Amino acid sequence: MPTPRNRKPKHRKSTPSTPAVPGYLFHKATGQGYARMNGRQVYFGDYDKPESKQKYYALIARYLKNNGTIPPAPPEITIMELCALYLKFASSRYVNSEGEPTQTMDWVRAVIKTLREMFGYEQVPEFGPLKLQDCLDTWIKRKLTRRTCNAYLAQTKRLFKYAASQELITGDVYQALKAVESLQRGRTAARETPKVKPVPEPDIEAVRPYLSRQINALITVQLYSGARGGELLGLRPCDIDTSGEVWIGRPVSHKLAYRGMECPIAFGPQCQEALREFMLRSSKSYLFSPRDAEEGRHAQASNHRRPDQKPGNPKTDRKLGERYTNDSYRRAIKRACDVAGVKRWTPHQLRHNAATRAREEHGLEGGRVHLRQACINTTKIYAEGDLVESIEIAKKIG
Length: 398
Hints:
Blueprint: E1 25-27, E2 32-37, E3 40-46, H1 50-65, H2 79-93, H3 103-119, H4 129-141, H5 146-165, H6 171-177, H7 201-207, H8 213-225, H9 229-233, E4 240-241, E5 247-249, E6 265-267, H10 269-275, H11 290-300, H12 326-340, H13 347-370, H14 376-397
Antiparallel strand pairs: 1-2, 2-3, 4-5, 5-6
Helix pairs in contact: 2-3, 3-5, 4-5, 5-6, 8-10, 8-13, 13-14
């Protein structure tokens, strides 16, 4: 009788097995809780304490998520080392379209200075919400304003967010820092800043005799257009469309440039009159140049150098740039205020003058449009409609 052929058993599809969960054990010699994982012992601190068990459960979750292996721990670095890495990162991130650092870099440097002074040699993972609150208390004691404290707080969180993104810390360290809330008006000892008010018209006229024609033109354009100072300082003739009844300026550097969006400025008759003489410059030159202002000042001086007079050593290291900056624009007005004997005011207040005039004549919505204020989420939707209305407003008041 023929023997049956040897049949091979059918192979069943293997299913991935869940790795065994290492137990929470007691280490008699040290009194700590520990677990055996991947051929080594991992300790969690005092046995049976809540903190020890929390570390155990957190590591088990990571152990199971990685199919029975312990993911590599983040490298241990100090706060000092992290600050150096973040400063290098921020220096290339927080710059405008012309490569100049933005105001955010001032906040970065201030935050880094505080962290180095208070916790420089401590390990990054040891920095928690209580230490962040200590930083906040330090800024309050230094009499910084509430808004400045909140800006520093947000920047500190961004620093640790960067650390988490580079796997220098675990995500839970950054998430814990997010629990620290920003300071609220009336609920903190931080100093409050007074509300910014428009500049009185007599104070504006009082400083004009002590300013260059470039700064005077800037004041006029900002007063009637409601533009931000930084938007006007970088304008060139090629950035302004003069084909229509209302000129349209499209600054390269502005608040939303990093989002790839435009922020057009409508220049009415008053602004055009102030800009006209500067539009004769070459198309790629900045409209408002401190070098031109210096040459004009020398031309009006009563005393001049003799042809054979040797140049002396400069008293300062100050160098004239191709255009004014926010700081140099503000300083010029501050010095003129001191000479004229009026209360100091800033270029930013001129924007409030423009807002007040626009709201009086065109209502709250007209003021918003004239100053080009909008929620970032809706700016793309309403940008064209706002520009049309802004042109109409500029015809009347700008």
